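Notes from the 1:1 (GR / supervisor)

We went over the backlog. Supervisor wanted to see one worked example end to end before approving the batch request, so GR pasted a single chain during the call. The sequence is below; no edits were made to it. Supervisor asked that the structure be written out right there so they could see what the output format looks like.
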Amino acid sequence: MDFYGFYTGKIFDAYEWLGAHYTPEKTVFRTFAPQASRAELLLGDKILPMQKIYNGQFYELEVENVKPGEKYEYRIYSGSGYTDHADPYGYAMELRPMHKSIVCDMESYRFNDAEWMKKRNSMKDKPLNIYEIHAGSFKKPSDEPGSWYNYEQLGEVLIPYLKECGYNYVEFLPLCEHPCDESWGYQTTGYFSPTSRYGTPDQLRHLIDMLHENDIGVILDFVPVHFAVDSYGLYKYDGSALYEYPNNDVGMSEWGSCNFMHSRGEVKTFLQSSANYWLKEFHFDGLRMDAISRIIFWQGDERRGVNSNALDFVKTMNKNLKELNSGCMLIAEDSTSFKGITKDTEKGGLGFDYKWDLGWMNDTLSFFAHAPEQRSEFYHKLTFSMMYFPDENYLLPLSHDEVVHGKGTIANKMYGTTEEKLSQAKALYMFMMAHPGKKLNFMGNELGQFREWDEKRGQDFCLLENEAHKGFHEYMKKLNECYLNESAFYEDYEADGFEWADCHSESELLYSIIRKSKKETLIALFNFNNKIKTNYTVKIPDGIKNAEVLLCSDSVCYGGNTDDAGKLYELRQSELSCSLPAYTGLLIKLNK
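Structure output shown during the call:
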């Protein structure tokens, strides 16, 4: 290992030296514990003293005839006694509540996705439709507590569904090992260990291989800001604040976890080696990085000022991850107005490919929560996002965060009766597709689900036995198909790719959006009122000779009341006139 690079935060491969490295002849165990007085390896029922090496801050032990699957941990001694810790660089861990690390043969799996890896890219000018999933609660083999599909079994049920529904990427909530199911993986104890809830590291590799074989990209939710406080994890690993801040004022996060001290070279090396590990060793196609606002500002609070050390860390990490992993994408979950999130680091940016547009999400859901007679006052919540959209490469999320903790599901956030909620949710999703930006939808949303997400239960696929929800689901499949196939929808960052045909019908709650690509022109018209609008006329580009309806959210086949959507509009010279039922979106292709 490059020790200078380790201490200065310059390397991305520390996991290749630290941790437990198996060969049939011997396994070498190494850990970094600079303030420890001594360290021991607990392997099975053996307690084996480790030797100080290099500058005395690292400990090492070679052990013969160790088998993959054997469990181990480190006993780290300091002035206050000792604590038994899982290996910070360990490749696997026991199922909670146990926590020992597990020896793995990292050379046992051979990927079969060379063709995919060669062609993958960041999808800037391509459709990116992400299905966000919690691996343990998409579907369950039984209702018993702790009943989960393993990674390979999950692939067998998930992949056909993704293809059927029109999602070309899947994003997993964190899969790093974590002690508490309710944290969904956001309080991590194993930054190099795929959670054993769903199987082994090789089973996870096989899942990713399966997804790539079916032309589905895979994104991992990654947590570079904070870690769990469990005593066997990183917390006071060598008796001192090795990974965290020594001061609790900045050391403890709002979630009760420890903030990483990003100014330390060893911490930078740890995190960026972990990020690179998932991309390189598991062939994930991208990382969605959680809580980036807490990296930009101290504790995520703009009043506390910019955390320049953390910013330098993320710039260096992003730049090198892109160079080391061809075609990977990096996504920031960030709610701040900080500039340059998706600009290249060479141009002073942070180097992300995409930024979640949480402003769009909040404004849009707020609008639909109001009764129609109140919406005129909030009309421009749906237009405001286009004031800032050109500033970054945005991704529109309707994520897990919006369907838990008493917030209600996406469908249930809509105002009105059950029927009205489903009608408005269909129109909302068409508005989402018509708005520039890549797309993300959390599992269950596509069912028109009214029950909040619960990590202990699978999604309510039984809803598809109900005609209203079956129609909603069929509509979402067709909408996703339109998004994947119509280039005007996904050439998001072209200057002339979007224009408002109407964004000033405040009293009637009407909107019209024109989307253009090099090949085609689409118009999406919306009535977010509870009254039908007849003779709604908008200007369209010159030279349009004919038009065709691609999708109407009110069609009978999707649970609505419109028999023939083709009769809803009339094309005139440079104008389109239509009749829009209440709570309806109408998508039309304009042909020259």
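Supervisor's comment: DSSP finds 15 helices and 29 strands in the chain.
Batch request approved.
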